[in-house]
Write a structure and sequence with these properties.
The protein is built from 9 helices and 14 strands. It is globular and about 70 Å long. Strand 9 and strand 10 form a beta hairpin. The chain has 2 domains: 123 residues, D-amino Acid Aminotransferase, Chain A, domain 1 (2-Layer Sandwich), CATH 3.30.470; 169 residues, Alpha-Beta Barrel (D-amino Acid Aminotransferase, Chain A, domain 2). Strands 7, 8, 9, 10, 11, 12, 13 and 14 form an 8-stranded mixed sheet that branches. Strands 2-1-6-5-3-4 form a 6-stranded antiparallel sheet. With 312 residues, it is of the alpha+beta class. The structure holds pyridoxal-5'-phosphate (PLP). Pyridoxal-5'-phosphate binds next to helix 7.
Length: 312
């Protein structure tokens, strides 16, 4: 007999103010739920370290923004907070971490349009372990290929029904892009628009860094610049990128927001894909070409990891 997956489920339910615990090894959704039949819903993935969810407010705010984009009415933030607290506490009791280094869990929030014919969303919190692959990629870095996303960088404004910028459950395309990369021997993907702009990864935000030495007469000083693609190109606003930018600015980094082209990635001193669970994954190669120098990439990654460690 296989041991049950270490997953805790908590449904948001008006009859249970702290959320309703459910058995993750048993079916819990109606087969007519539009999250399942149409991918019609939204989600968030957050990291909890030592029982504390990082950037919780930013994730709840983005969940609210996604809900608004989809005209989905979801429970208030206090209800989500209560269910998250129940789920994380329950997971710590049922599946305690073996060491403080492994005291991390993924907290996923899901809201679907609910069963066909009903007019109430289905909402739940899922707490599960962090996969070993993400942890390895933080250390070892990743090889990435560039793939055409199939739309131009103006489409978000022109066609709001595409729901770009919302974190919807319709991630089949993103997962297909990752499978395509794996078949090519790569780890991940950076999407390009049809007009040649750098967009994002299927589950991450693109960051690049330049380091320059400037001498304005008062002695040489090092300028560190952190750049991410423009948000109005239909990409998801990353909570990790946002938090890291705030911390980097306070530490004296200069910040920039695209537009970026593939050559900017190849010319960078370092490139990362950043997201809430995997955190900063250094990009070693793009389409087989080495990015920056390993020594500088290592140093910048350590610096940014230290800054991000201070993010709540
Ligand atoms: N872009 C996409 C398409 C994503 O799916 C994600 C996260 O899953 C991100 C960016 C990064 O967002 P965050 O830093 O909030 O995890």
């Amino acid at each position: 007999m296989t041991s049950p997956a270490p997953v805790v489920l908590v449904f948001l339910d008006p009859a249970f103010p702290a959320g309703r615990l459910a058995d993750a090894s048993q079916p819990q959704l109606l087969a007519t739920d539009q999250g399942a039949t149409r991918g019609d819903g939204i989600f968030e993935s957050m990291l909890a370290v030592g029982g504390d969810v990082r950037k919780l407010q930013a994730h709840l705010d983005r969940l609210g923004g996604s809900a608004e984009t989809l005209d989905l009415v979801i429970p208030a933030q206090e209800q989500w907070r209560a269910a998250i607290a129940t789920g994380v506490a329950q997971h710590r009791t049922q599946h305690p971490a073996r060491s403080s280094a492994e005291d991390e869990v993924v907290v996923k929030l899901v809201a679907t349009r609910g069963p066909e014919g009903a007019d109430s969303p289905t909402c739940w919190v899922q707490v599960s372990p962090v996969g070993a692959l993400g942890r390895r990629q933080r250390e070892a870095g990743i090889d990435v290929i560039l793939l055409d996303r199939g739309y131009d960088s103006d489409v978000a404004e022109r066609a709001p029904w595409l729901l770009l910028g919302a974190k919807t459950l319709s991630y089949a395309v993103n997962m297909a892009a990752l499978r395509h990369a794996h078949k090519q021997g790569a780890d991940d993907v950076i999407f390009l628009s049809t007009d040649g702009r750098v967009l994002e990864g299927p589950t991450s935000t693109v960051l690049l860094a330049h380091v320059e030495t400037a001498d304005d007469g008062a002695g040489a000083r090092t300028i560190r610049r952190l750049i991410t693609p423009q948000l109005d190109t239909g990409i998801l606003p990353g909570t990790s990128q946002g938090a890291l930018f705030t911390a980097a600015k306070a530490a004296g980094w200069e910040l920039g927001y695209g537009p970026l082209e593939p050559q900017d990635l190849l010319d960078a001193d370092a490139v990362w894909l950043i997201s809430s669970i995997r955190l900063l994954a250094p990009v070693n190669h793009i389409d087989g070409k080495e990015i920056g120098t390993p020594a500088l990439q290592k140093q910048l990654t350590a610096e940014l990891n230290a800054l991000y460690a201070g993010v709540q």
